[in-house]
Specification:
globular, 3 helices, outer membrane lipoprotein receptor (LolB), chain A, alpha+beta, 13-stranded antiparallel beta sheet, about 250 residues, about 15% helix
């Protein structure tokens, strides 16, 4: 009897281990379908409040795996020329128009330039390093661009209290791993915003979403929209781009 119980316990442990590995693999594949390892992209971020467009920013960014993200606001206006550097889980902002001439450290949880995206969402949208994932299940989702599709659902829990979110739920298309939806929850379990992916086209060598919409679940009619104008895989980005010296260049 004891041996039988031992075998059941061992089987359960191995099953949990296999499921954890599967969820980790799916989360990595989900992230790869969002962005390549090293790339340049040009985007427009629109911020809407009560269905009224309040702000539009054009941003160029360079991302290099293991190094960080460098972003520059290119749109005309008072924000033009502001740069951001995400590196080692820190986000720095440099405004060449200020008198201090020193980068300012930003909280990853705070809003990025008044949008519904957090600083961390824009600087580093990869979750596999900071969250423990679990495969929850599968189900059909009706998508306006893709029709009725089978999707897997992953629940990701923060490894640290310093993580931007406590819990994230992600839906990816089975087989292609195309990102379909991400939901963000507070520590109390409240869903407060949701990111959806639309207008899939070839970007950086594979099919990816070119329009991302973050909707507030707290304020009706409030949303932020990312429109990817171009994305190019670049494996020759200099390491010097991800330094304070270059940030202030």
């Amino acid at each position: 009897m004891k041996r039988y119980l031992f075998m059941i316990v061992m089987f359960s442990a191995l099953l949990c281990f296999a499921q954890d590995n599967q969820s980790s693999d799916l989360l990595n594949a989900f992230e790869e379908a969002m962005y390549p390892d090293n790339f340049f992209q040009k985007v427009i971020i629109e911020t809407w409040e009560k269905n009224t467009l309040r702000q539009e920013l054009e941003i160029d960014s360079y991302y290099k795996n293991g190094m960080g993200t460098l972003m520059t606001i290119e749109s005309d206006g008072r924000s033009k020329g502001i740069r951001f550097l995400e590196k080692d889980d820190n986000l720095w902002m440099y405004n060449p128009k200020t008198a201090t001439r020193k980068p300012v450290r930003l909280s990853p949880r705070d809003s990025f330039q008044g949008s519904l995206f957090s600083n961390n969402d824009i600087g580093d949208s990869r979750y596999s390093d900071d969250y423990e994932s679990k495969l929850v299940g599968h189900g059909n989702i009706n998508h306006p661009d893709l029709g009725t599709i089978d999707c897997y659902e992953i629940e990701a829990k923060a490894k640290s209290k310093d993580s931007t979110y406590d819990t994230i739920k992600l839906w990816g298309q089975t087989g292609t791993n195309l990102p379909i939806r991400i939901q963000y929850f507070t520590k109390s379990g409240l869903l407060f915003k949701e990111l959806e992916f639309f207008e899939f086209k070839t970007l950086a060598g594979r099919k990816r979403a070119s329009r991302l919409v973050m909707n507030s679940k707290e304020t009706e009619g409030s949303r932020s929209v990312v429109k990817i104008l171009e994305m190019e895989e670049k494996n020759d980005i200099p390491d010097s781009y991800f330094t304070e010296a270059y940030l202030k260049k």
